[in-house]
Specification:
The chain has helices at about 50-60, 125-135, and strands at about 5-15, 20-25, 35, 40, 65-75, 85-95, 105-115, 140. It is α/β, with parallel strands linked by helices. Strand 2 and strand 3 (about 35) form a beta hairpin.
Length: about 140
């Protein structure tokens, strides 16, 4: 029997001067066809902040700073796939660099969206982060 376990991931809401958020269209096995904030799993020995900055740079070529905790969520949507995540969401209050598609095997493209006009298919962790950001309630228990 395969051992199941939870993983910890991070997501980062990057907001531009037009108050739009950066979302990537995912491809690959987990969350394919869904839009998500940049982010990824915390690797053993890395801090949360190191993971946030590393994942954003690896995926978008952007550098983020002045991080603000906006959500912690139990992600239960993917239990049927044998995956459970605890997602920690941040808002980057500043960023720099030129946006580039750095991992074309994981993302189709990056686009900026208004929070009032988001795409329909959102990755579970991204959806939880947006709910927390809009409501000011940091913890989401994964129950809809």
């Amino acid at each position: 029997m395969e051992k199941k376990y939870s993983r910890v991931g991070v997501g980062v809401m990057i907001v531009n001067k037009q108050s739009e958020v950066l979302l990537g269209l995912r491809q690959g096995s987990h969350g394919a066809g869904e839009w998500s904030f940049p982010g990824g799993g915390i690797e053993f020995g890395d801090t949360i902040e190191k993971t946030v900055k590393k994942e954003v740079k690896e995926e978008t070529n952007l550098e983020v700073d002045d991080l603000e905790l906006i959500s912690v969520a139990d992600e239960m949507r993917y239990l049927v796939e044998g995956k459970q995540y605890v997602m920690i969401g941040f808002k980057a209050n500043s960023f720099s660099g030129e946006l580039k598609l750095m991992e074309p095997d994981k993302f189709v493209k990056w686009e900026w969206f208004s929070l009032s006009n988001l795409p329909e298919l959102l990755f579970s962790g991204t959806e939880s982060m947006i709910i927390s950001y809009k409501t000011g309630k940091i913890y989401q228990n994964g129950q809809k």
